[in-house]
Amino acid sequence: MCGIVGAVARHDVTNFLLESLHRLEYRGYDSAGLAVTDNQGSIQRIRRVGKVQALQDAMIENPITGRIGIAHTRWATHGEPTEQNAHPHVSEHIAVVHNGIIENHESLRIMLIKRGYHFISKTDTEVIAHLTHWEQLYCGGSLLEVVQRVISQLRGTYGTVVMDSYSPELLITARSGSPLVIGCGIDENFIASDQLALLPVTNNCIFLEEGDIASVTCNIIKVFDKYGNDVKRTEIKLNTKYDVSDKGVYYHYMQKEIYEQPLAIKNTLKNRLRYGSVDLSELGEKADLILAEVEHIQIISCGTSYHSGIVARYWFESLIGLPCDVEIASEFRYRRSVVRKNSLIITLSQSGETADTLAALRLSKKNGYLGSLAICNVASSSLLRESDLALLTKAGIEIGVASTKAFTTQLTVLLLLVVNIGRLHNISNQIVQDIIQALQVLPQRIEQILSMDLGIADLAEDFMDKQHVLFIGRGDQYPIAMEGALKLKEISYIHAEAYAAGELKHGPLALIDANMPVVVIAPNNTLLEKLKSNIEEVRARSGLLYIFADINAGFNNSVGMRVISLPHVEEIIAPIFYTVPLQLLSYYVALIKGTDIDHPRNLAKSVTVE
Ligand code: GLU
């Protein structure tokens, strides 16, 4: 979501702060701001609604400089995206940036108003600034002690950095739920909510853990845990090289990431698929002890990852007979659920920082699950660190807000996991061989689809003026229909819904007329005949059919029915394969509608607030 950066150095830090904000733009935001303590010891602040470029332009007109500063891209949760609500928020000599939500902000606000504070913004964040000011003025102590007292009064999930112009060499940063990383330099140190922001200045990072508070000067970094103990957090050397400014030959990151999928899948399979077998020894020695005991799988995830969870349920149950349930994290975490015997919790998240998924994982630890396994795309993420077992998708950094390669690599890892768990649960040799052979050809199958992109681009005009689109599929293609509908919603702003095709007559058929496009996913499998009946139901009501069909499925173009013939694909990997043309369809519809494809309105990458 929103981004935080901070820096303290022996030289002006404004350029670093601005450049880092640019590097965080991919996460989605609505306003940006920056504050420094200048050489006279005063806070100087500039904020703008809209893009970081607007902030940069404002700083060219009114230059400010300082050797210590904080900056922020905001994704509004409390208060509209206005300049007044943009961060940093200031209370006299205190300036604060904050990601996340302070849940008890209302009671704190009332208390602070009684103490005489005047609130300028509608944000929850402003309470941190005034509370810090009050604690310092009336209770005293070092800035670290002051922030420790402030933090103890806050409820919610957040990451924050506090700057005090009375201590012009020191930043205090605290983490509770939202990620924070400290970048270690020589005679300069940095803070960010995302390691990408730090890439131009350092590869050496310290990831703060839950409840940590750190004090950061030019040459000293001290970390204290939630109990106030002075702790040592390991400095990690990152080898991330991705340059976010590089779209290569593509117009958008999303387009680039769609086309990267064959490579991303190859990287995800590398060293895990060899000599005709699956090797997940990276899970460590204790893995088999846990996995052999598993009698039930509970998958928890959100958004696109929820859809890969549903596909995995089909796989776990049909391929190895292991009962599996899938639930949206924000629902799971707030209901009392029954824990099945020997149940393994699997969490799926691109970023590994999704607030609801993390909260669900933490809750599961109290509820007697057999163990936890995380699948995500960021090696340094909280989800991986906090799970018993972890598997990385090796998609490479995903910048487009609408997830593409993270989804297909998640599914790839899930298939590997089916084999790995299945081996301890009498999976048949034939199924193992089918999965392995299918995975081996998957990158090349996706390349085949990508080479058909112009045919799919041709369809986009038919959709651009539509208000609603239905997506239907059966079996493991139903979640792919859901994912196709989500992609179209996210980037083209067309309302799209997915239905299991058999459900049409239970309601949605009422929507069908000559204006309603219905996208059908039609592989040549045992459900094809059933699907054909559903297609007839739509035809009989003059619906506009767009059928993504196996070349042998026996469909022909006719009035009201457009067939996109796709090569035959192995049944096991068909859900991954059919995802790609739907991604392309959404992309091209959004392209002709002229939406902001990489930063769709109101959305953010990595949802670190609940
Ligand atoms: N809740 C804060 C606000 O609305 C921070 C939002 C964010 O994470 O950017 O300003």
The bound ligands are:
glutamic acid
Q: Count the beta strands.
A: 27
- Could you say which structural class the secondary elements and strand pairing correspond to? alpha/beta
Q: Would you identify the regions where 5 or more consecutive residues have pLDDT less than 50?
A: none
Rg calc: 26 Å
Gap between N and C termini: 11 Å
**Which assembly state applies to the chains in this document?**
single chain
Give, in spatial order, the strands making up the sheet with the most strands.
Answer: 3-2-4-1-10-9-11-15
Number of helices: 19
Strand content: 15-25%
Mean pLDDT across all amino acids: 94
Fraction of residues in helices?
25-40%
State the major sheet.
8 strands, antiparallel
Shape: globular
Structure described in brief:
This protein is of the alpha/beta class. Helix 4 (126-139) packs across helix 5. Glutamic acid (GLU) binds at residues 1-2, 74-79, 85, 98-101, 123-125, 609.
Layout of helices and strands, plus pairs?
Elements: E1 3-8, H1 14-23, E2 31-37, E3 43-49, H2 52-61, E4 68-74, E5 89-91, E6 94-102, H3 105-114, H4 126-139, H5 143-152, E7 156-164, E8 171-176, E9 181-184, E10 189-192, E11 204-207, E12 213-216, E13 221-224, E14 230-231, E15 235-237, H6 253-259, H7 261-269, E16 273-274, E17 277-278, H8 286-293, E18 296-301, H9 303-320, E19 324-328, H10 329-332, E20 343-349, H11 355-366, E21 371-376, H12 382-386, E22 389-392, H13 405-422, H14 429-450, H15 453-457, H16 460-464, E23 468-473, H17 478-492, E24 495-500, E25 517-522, H18 528-539, E26 544-550, E27 561-566, H19 574-593
Parallel strand pairs: 18-19, 18-20, 20-21, 21-22, 23-24, 23-25, 25-26, 26-27
Antiparallel strand pairs: 1-4, 1-10, 2-3, 2-4, 5-6, 6-7, 7-8, 8-12, 9-10, 9-11, 11-15, 12-13, 13-14, 16-17
The chain binds glutamic acid.
